Amino acid sequence: MTIMIPAWVDGTLQPVEKLQAHIAGLRHMAVSVFVVCNDAILIQQRALTKYHTPGLWANTCCTHPDWAENPFTCAQRRLTEELGINNLDLVHRGIVEYRADVGSGMIEHEVVDMFVAHAPRDLPMDLNPQEVAAVAWVSIPDLRKNIAANPDRFTPWLRIYLTDHSDRIFDTGV
After folding, report:
1. So which residues are the catalytic ones?
2. Is the pLDDT at 173 greater than 80, yes or no?
3. Which residues span the domain enclosing 15?
4. pTM surpassing 0.85?
């Protein structure tokens, strides 16, 4: 199945095949969701079958909206498709842009709508094994320590979010 995502080509937003956008390093739209419980964040380990960054730990959910899809709708859709999580109250935390090498000659150059939702640790989930290998709740300070000790176990975007955008995402100042 060909997935078309919104990407900028020659300064114009156009539908581009997802893999091609990553190979060419095109600037494209994305969505990231952070589900939190008090001082902890729900992180996911990407499935080993993902075409880039397989097996690495990332924020709760991250994806690309379909062509002409609203970012909020996309965030809700992917929480359900990846984690089986429904009916969370998502709060938009702004838009950030980053560029990162994700290996195998691919680049994520994303303009990201970020969303945060608060949920209990016993949140019901139904993981999609094609998307997610595992999940874990981890405190933000512990996550920072784990990333500092083993950066290669985490996606480049999660490292960027915690380094450059933590205040905006979590509104904690940590």
Report:
1. 62, 110
2. no
3. 4-166
4. yes
